[in-house]
């Protein structure tokens, strides 16, 4: 239950992307929502339109902007683009490891796999948590006493949640609770985080989605 005068920052993962080749697209431009992804975005807008939302933020990636667009239209609010909530940097970007994981067994890939705890193949988890935390703090200040929405990406959202809950940042990606268009809500009483809530407004659409890494 969210009480009056509490501030809530909703972290939303974007909808399904049109990616038939199952490319690990990361920060690559040109990857937009699929038809199903647009349905998910509409479902998100329907789910949140009745909330006391006063501030909207999006990752600059096309898929995130397209996800927040129906909500922005419904609420008649502008969207602030924030580089701090962008997808995590990944040295495997552009590979089709979802369709062919054996690509990671090539000798030239081995130096990238030496330390999964950092990780050695991309942006450090600690840096992801720090930039996401800064973005959430600014969104919380902008929506003080109300609610804000940030549309971001699975790994940044999950990494921040692990950090806020005092858990280790390295993890099994298969165990992330961060489905497409899911909402991880951070509830604050003043500066104190008092609850983390989770919802999947497009749960019935998820079985139709293509499982793609780097989303």
From TrEMBL:
<dbReference type="Pfam" id="PF00300">
    <property type="entry name" value="His_Phos_1"/>
</dbReference>
<dbReference type="GO" id="GO:0016791">
    <property type="term" value="F:phosphatase activity"/>
</dbReference>
<dbReference type="InterPro" id="IPR029033">
    <property type="entry name" value="His_PPase_superfam"/>
</dbReference>
<dbReference type="GO" id="GO:0005737">
    <property type="term" value="C:cytoplasm"/>
</dbReference>
<protein>
    <submittedName>
        <fullName>Histidine phosphatase family protein</fullName>
    </submittedName>
</protein>
<dbReference type="InterPro" id="IPR013078">
    <property type="entry name" value="His_Pase_superF_clade-1"/>
</dbReference>
<dbReference type="InterPro" id="IPR050275">
    <property type="entry name" value="PGM_Phosphatase"/>
</dbReference>
